[in-house]
Amino acid sequence: MSKTERTLEEHELIQRIEGDGQGAFVESYDAEAEVMTINMGPVHPATHGVLRLFLELDGETVMDCKPMIGYLHTGMEKECEDQNWRGAVTIVTRMDYLAPFHNEHAYSRAVEKLLGIEVPPRGVYIRMLMSELNRLTSHLVQFGTQGLDMGAMSAMFYGFREREIITDFFEMVTGLRMNHGYIVPGGVWEDLPDGWQEQVANILDVMPGRLNEYQDLLSENPIFIERTRGVGTITAEECDTLGVTGPIARASGIDWDLRRDMPYEAYDELSFEVPTQEQGDVYARYQIRMAEMVQSVALLEQIVDQMPDGDYKNMDPKLTPPPRSELNRSMEAVIHHFKLVTQGYAVPKGESYFAVESPRGELGAFVVSDGGTSPYRCHVRDPSFYNLQSLPVMAKGGLIADLIACIASLDPIMGGVDR
Amino acid sequence: MALPEILTGMRVVIRNVFKGKETMSYPEVRRQPWPRFKGRHVLERHPDGLEKCIGCELCAGACPADAIYVVGAENKPGARFSPGERYAQIYQINYLRCIFCGLCVEACPTEALLMTTEYEISGTSRDDLVYTKEQLIVDAPIQRHWDTKIEYSPDRTTKQKAGRDGASS
After folding, report:
1. Is A222 on the interface with B (CB under 8 A)?
2. CB A76 within 8 Å of CB A91
3. Per CATH, which fold does A76-315+345-417 belong to?
4. What is the residue extent of each domain of chain A?
5. What ipTM score was computed for the predicted complex, to two decimals?
6. Nearest Cβ partner of A175 from B99, B102, B111?
7. Which of A244, A394, B162, B164 could be bridged to A239 by S-S, CB 3.0 to 4.6 A?
8. Given CB atoms, is A167 within the 8 Å cutoff of chain B?
């Protein structure tokens, strides 16, 4: 069979299937009720990754919407069980890949809780510095993709332009732009390099002006408001029932932020506001994220001012490998180094949960130790997974175009949903 | 009408048109990463030419992605490769698996394994990306920027800081 013949035949076949109401995208078609069930995704540019949506449509109105997940399942939680406690950080950081520092942060704090150790003040402040910068990068991506999905292409360019300055700083500090493995149990991997103040000062110089630019560009744009106001509404009760946290819950009027209400690290020493809105629509969620970026900049200024000196990680030789200069002269240091690299440290038997406020909501890590040198179980409560459950509530009764706006405002990270 | 708001937005766009480019034409202009950048590895030598690697396999043990394969062997009086008793007979890093976390560099007790700022690692086959000891070992004297970090510039023109200045304007 020649190539043309086969193509023609395939074409006819597809036509016949589509004619029956069955096809690659159409799952079923009920002619009487005029309800069509179609697949959206898993490879669709507006689903932010490999999210597959099972839509029941009446014309263009969404009657029902079922998110189907698992297309990015890579077994990372299981993979952690093969690593030692230190090595698992490199796996955990890849789950919610737009908030790597928050993943590491939650995991490290959960392990520290089991170990019962303290982090020196400088380590605490470096953690907060990186977490807040990470919140900025994540919200900037959300700003860009939200604009892109609404047809505002330039938002994407501007969002990524600002993100670039911050990822550049991440590279300067951690050596990588994403998936850093920087926050480890006991502190952080390495101290801030020389010249970090200038870089952060540059970010803090640039950001407020750029945030104002976004307000001019998108926040007051009547086309954008038309697409987002009153779209994808979710109430506070529904948020509570579905376990939705973060900007989505705050946009519906739930005044809850772990940084303020269950302060961890040194957030109780800093002053900041938790922005809330009542409407619970796409536009309110957008506004919350913009306001949070302003608050993050304010927090960063305080963190830079109050950055203490001293150790950046817990220098317990049973936990942290000795400094490299020690290896050449101290036999004890060599033994500690060898033990820590080959086996890692043992963590007392028990289980612990620790949650941080990630850009998407409550990101918690639940670790179980059987007293060995690797996690017995490491579960991550990823906010994307829980927030995604609210999509059917938002999308029901709206148009397909509104569904796109809802997905963009949810900001789901499929790496975090499937883990 | 909503014209004033749209014009405000357009003013932002037009202002940014005249601001200069944030992007760079990549193959001609290359971004120089920061000294801490975790790029491809190298194996270092002592000043006298002997290898620093002693074939202890700690890097292979520390690697979360099982990307490193080391087989150690004993130095013989006639054939001495490293100052210690043992040396790495086979040393391979599989860049299809490597996640550039830097745990191997942390694990190395003799500072033999270091990371460079080279980030252009690509090949036309899977075998191309399994780097052998011959590809990893460097003979030239190395200037250090970091305790466990070296700057290694391959033979090419690098316009430094082109992107960084642009981004911070």
Report:
1. yes
2. yes
3. Cytochrome-c3 Hydrogenase; chain B (1.10.645)
4. 3-68, 76-315+345-417
5. 0.80
6. B102
7. A244
8. no
